Amino acid sequence: MNSVTIIADKDVQWKESLTTESTPVRRLLIFAAFLYLTLFLFIPLVAIFTEALKHGLSGYIDSFLNEDALAAIRLTLLVAAVAVPMNAVFGVAAAWAIAKFEFVGKQALITLIDMPLAVSPVISGLIYVLLFGAQGWLGPWLAEHDIKIIFALPGILLATIFVTVPFVARELIPLMQSQGREEEEAAITLGASGWQMFVRVTLPNIKWSLLYGVILCNARAMGEFGAVSVVSGHIRGLTNTMPLHVEILYNEYNAVSAFAVASLLTLLALVTLSAKTLIERKTASATRLKSQR
Q1: Minimum mean pLDDT range among 5-9, 69-73, 99-103, 225-229
Q2: What angle do CA 90, 93, 94 make, to 5 degrees?
Q3: 3-state DSSP helix/strand/coil percent for the chain, to nearest 5?
Q4: In sequence order, which ranges of 164-202 are alpha helices (DSSP H)?
Q5: 239 in helix, strand or coil?
């Protein structure tokens, strides 16, 4: 065995000693992770479904047959159906502009996109009340024209759109920046129109990240509480989303119905998590295939 081989073997052993933990340490870390998840995730999930089914399956189903519960479910789905596509379109446009072009105010646009992550949702709701409330800046003008935003559907939509703005854009910006502009420029050079370039070049390259951002955006839209609570007015059957309906039921000591509606939100979250995991696998697989070409 020559000296080069000995040095190489020692180098491998040295790297393994840095990157490989002993068996007891690995087991301890795994145990700590499972213990943490059990205490703060699994046990609460079991508690939610246990309380929701406390009066049996018929009692569980009856919790959703209440007109207020059905109205809250419909409103939640409606708000998500409006807010998510709008933020998807905005996210693609903003990511395209930031990743592909240089312009004055680019950093300001990035800061504005990140703002909902830094501002408390309650504060964002109060801003809309200040703007559109009866005593707000635009309140008297809106009242004169019989336009209602606060304590109505438009206010809930505005609050939800605000808090979900960053999710799609923030998923796409780093990806589109890493991809560069070469493929789009080549498509334009070959005679493709702007729409053809987007559909045949850009969209296939970003589709998994776009879908991932849409899933996160949808999860936040359906689960938002703080901003919606401020602008909704808590009007039963009209402006209560599912999270607000859960709060009202719990405050009225109707724990079974509250946990039943909460379990539906939990199921939606689990579906979202499953879709998120699938998208991550698809993205990783697509990245590997592209790197092998």
Answers
A1: 5-9
A2: 80
A3: 80, 0, 20
A4: 166-179, 182-189, 194-197
A5: coil
- What's the average model confidence in pLDDT over 160-171? 94
Please report, as a single letter, which amino acid is at residue 58: S
Contact at 8 Å (CB) between 221 and 228?
Answer: no
Helix (H, G, I), strand (E, B) or coil at 290: helix
User: If you search the block for the tokens 């359906």, which residue do you land on?
Assistant: 222
The full 3-state SS of 50-118, as one line of letters, equals HHHCCCHHHHHHHHHHCHHHHHHHHHHHHHHHHHHHHHHHHHHHHHHHHHHCCCCCHHHHHHHHHHHHH
First-to-last C-alpha distance (Å) of the chain:
38
The pTM of the full predicted model, rounded to 2 decimals, is 0.83
Residue 264 and residue 64: Cα distance in Å, rounded?
A: 10
Region 249-277: mean pLDDT is: 88
Distance CA 257, CA 54 (A): 10
CA distances from 204 to 68, 208, 215 (A): 42, 8, 18
pLDDT, average across residues 235-253? 92
